[in-house]
């Protein structure tokens, strides 16, 4: 199927064209038309470097500005990969990739798509975490919009300063809980940029339709407050009314500027704000919280897929979580919701096979009054249990999920206890980056004597145990949000519904092959992520139509094909 719109000039396709005007129609004093000559070489969106052909060199006033050799995109890729592989440190590779993104965007995406297994850990988790920690000292060009308390009252104006006018996806963070690394303030921008690079590379959303945003209300990170290179406001975090007013102004300004159909992804907000913002805006805006909803969907997919290895139905299993924040309670709720749909048992009942441990021990009824609202549904009847190991012994879970943000908490004793209860314990160590993972792949396989089915949020290399190679899966929301976003855009969905998260999980689980299972994998490999994303997008879009939330008419007959044909291609 042919895509409906093709943008002039940059050879990329639009996937949600209803509101869109072409770049030409949108020319205002703030935008410039496509550059030529010297400025073309410095325009990352259109630059091709040595790959400009003889004809293009004549047409765009490039004669003499480039050396005589004409390279293919493949040759450019080869050279760049050679260069990147020479760097020892992941952060050096990260900087090389950012510089490429700022120099030649299409080459950046081509490289990322074709070498996704190697480069995902560089532009994304875990390296992006280190990059955010050091963002001030490695700062180059701004890659997104910074909205701080100084911009209060002027946010519409700030949005207008961004050169691209037809935005389809915004990733916004306030930097308070970046991965499992805590408060990184304004330097959380690195996460917004990284997530949106994945929207384009893995989900095929046009890069020019993506807008990374950091909301800066200060930071409580002393180290950053005392860091001379810190790029954010040097003050402690604003809270309460001041905080909520700024966020509200932002939400309203987005709608005013870009209309109803821009997807706003909340990323790495602290628990106390994440739940509240999602609840507040999900009925009035097209919002998605990646840490609550994206993580829930990817983990549900992993558990459903793992049933082929561990047996039983979803309803047969007992779940124990370490960590009862956004990820933990989000996953727990989506699993309970799915079981309830499958069995026709009310969700209040299906929650009872899901237990959560937080820093104070097992969440039980006697603690209910002192719990924040998002933990209350999990306060089941049980005597107090003080730590994870005791909880494993008391609850006897079949599935253990780490979402605590605290590394090395799945100890040898915990994994051994899981292995004594289960023939094939399912162990998911979700916290990021690698330093915060609840255990390593090596630990899970060794301590379970090769019996664990293991997946983790951050990537681990395959591990050989007693002659067998185990390939750990990466239970990271990166599998979900790019395809999920694409599904929203191709259907013109105006709201996110939990059933769309189930649809995404179902599509992802369906992509795991026998070959994958044979290696112990419960997710398909990232190398086929564009295909996976198209299937996720199609399933999400189908659900949006079914729920009456889709606005694109007519509904494309073959949604997988339509998703594929709508995807951004970085080929020159
Ligand atoms: O960014 C990632 O790798 C996954 C995620 O959302 C988080 O850990 O907060
Ligand atoms: Mg996150």
TrEMBL record:
Domain Malic enzyme N-terminal per the UniProt entry, residue ranges: 101-282
Protein's name according to its UniProt entry: Malic enzyme
Domain of life: Eukaryota
GO cellular component, as recorded: chloroplast
SUPFAM superfamilies per record: Aminoacid dehydrogenase-like, N-terminal domain, NAD(P)-binding Rossmann-fold domains
One Pfam entry name: malic
Cofactor notes: Divalent metal cations. Prefers magnesium or manganese.
Active-site feature positions: 124 (proton donor), 195 (proton acceptor)
Region annotated Disordered, chain positions: 1-23
